[in-house]
Amino acid sequence: MAKKGLINKIRRLWGKIPLLTEAVLGIAAILFLTIGVMLFWFATTPIPNINDFETRRVPESTKIYDRTGTTLLYDVHGSIRRTTVPLEEISPYIQKATIAIEDPDFYSHAGISLRAILRAIVADILTLDFGQGGSTITQQVVKNTILSTEKTITRKVKEWTLAIKLERTYNKDQILGVYLNENPYGGTIYGVEEASQYFFGKAAKDVGLAEAAYLAALPQAPTYYSPNGNHRDALESRKNLVLQKMKEVNFITEEEHVVAREEKVVFLEENEQGIKAPHFVFFIREYLEQKYGADVVYREGLKVVTTLDYDLQKQAEEIVKTYALENEARASAENAGLVAIDPNTGQILTMVGSRDYFDETIDGKYNIAIADRQPGSSFKPFVYATAFEKGYTPDTSLFNVRTQFSTACAPNFLETTDTCYSPDNYDHTFTGPMTLREALAQSVNIPAVKLLYLVGIDSALATAERMGITTLTTAARYGLTLVLGGGEVHLLDMVSAYGGFATDGMRHPATGILKVQDMRAKILEEYVDQSTRVLDEQTARQVSDVLSDNNARIPAYGASSPLHFPGFDVAVKTGTTNDSRDAWIVGYTPGLVAGAWAGNNDNTPMVKQTAGFIIAPMWHEFMVFAMEKYPAGSFIPPTPTDQSLPAILRGVWNIPGSDGLVHSILYWIDKNNPLLGNPPSNPYADQQYQYWETGISLWGGGATSTSPNIPGTTPFSITTPTNGTSIAHQTPISVQVSPQPRNTITNVSYYFNGAFIGNVSTAPFSIVFVPTSIGTGRIEAIAQGSFGSGSQTVTFTVR
Asked: What is the DSSP string of 685-703?
């Protein structure tokens, strides 16, 4: 049987031989054809003289214009800086660092790396991008000096062929010398000699190991990794990667690796000449490098027409500098920034990233418009928009009273600690019931935190992300502090997101580009509106109606504040972080949205003042100028509040419940379905309920009804255990309460030494627990009932 099975297998294999033969022949034919084509190119493609490499000029410079296409903001290579030096005058550290990160097998391959090419081919086939190259240093020299930077299969095959021929014509040191003398290192800086002088003030031959690692890190993305930009952490990580690669290929020892990683390298001050709107220009240049590659930006003569309104930009720069200097003197806020966008297109009209780009005393080159900063109360409109979408209205009332929000703490413990959260209002006043309109317009914190709880942190985050906020993460990271600016955002994102309110819920993503052309006038990209609906029209109009309601904000800002523009529809929201490190303002008309920030780049606090005093005057002056060029227009008013909605959503807060008491909104609605108007069967099932009720009760003098408990009387008592009792450790204790005559109890929460034990909402309201610590024990019972809210304690000994 075994012999018969073997014979059958042989027959089956024999039958497949023709198919296998055809497959092998097909593959062989493709390989022969490919090799033939490569040999043809290899034989016919000319190689320029090595002297041409060293004396050649960059073909054309990339020029960046404002929106008119005539005002030149920056010529990327307007004055090329390059000094060619022999390889022996370039530090061995620079040579080794470059080889380690770019091409570790440089001295052993013949111009190309077959392994890298195969890896790149697979990646290209999978992505259909043809952007991979597996480039050796030799290939990069070919690409930068002979070929165009277009991404095609033809160009790649030429590159491989020419790299092999170049290696046969010139030795490795010649090729490496050309590479190091031609590489772009940012801006107008070409070659390691010029880069060494520019960044470190020394010749390339004198550069140390850590400095060499920084230089080798730059060419991959010179603007992104620039030591003068916003990505110093990324530069530091790539420098460390260079050192790691050098150690792996035994160019340096472990000791040298450790010392160089820890060395603090000092970069010289940057000096950019002939540049307008520098923060915006480098924002655009970084975008271009990321999309087209640094080689294209530095060598291919792009013409870039941006969205910037340079007349508006100049005015903004002057205003920001004037007010920032004033704020430095009176509020210890030395820096400021401002961004303006056309909300109907998303086009960036103005970007001021500091009071002075060239002022090193404030780290002026750092672009605050795209930096992570906490927004304070300027984040609140996203939470209110989420609430309006869910059915809450500007007339809905919440109680502005001191409230403990952490269920790990007692409801009547009205302080904030590591585990407890009882936020304050900026003016330290608590006024009782307040409409959402009043709360948002006056930027009152307690109703905002309650509203975030009602709508849900995840929902609020989703709204903010949908509208254009890109930097926030998960609900667990922020908690209820999110509504008070607990996350970090970018000024540019905030201005862009507010644009969704200005346009009745349509989002137009922020962009700085109108058109990009190559040197042959071929259009590489052009502005196209990519708007999407992110809010319901009614929701966006409700937000705009509230934020432009000067009467509603008078109690906080006065009748004639910098937020008010008589005769114009201007919606605006300020924000100040609790620690006074950031002051914000973002406002808009139907035709313009602008936001500003004030503070210190190093995050030191300012003098404690509201944003209305620190940043609003600067923003107001800019808006007055800008609205002359970009007419304000009028907001479409929202539909009036539907009178068929549940009373609590219409602002009727002083209606008694079945117990004759006034209650929080959690008593009247299911927060997840507010429009249904069905009160929860057991509001105590919501852990926040007793906390909100306690806050109301304490604000009302100990009761929430029109017939408060008689002062001085005790509405209930703890009957067991009694004060002074001695109880054995690990012995179960039964805790019971009893109301005084004419009082009733509806709910009791128990705490042992401040820790929550449990909640009981049915008679006889007793609970059993086992004390876990020896010594003095303290039980607190917080009860709700006909008397409102009350608290009793007993103290005993656990032996």
From this structure: GSTTHHHHHHHHHHHTTS-
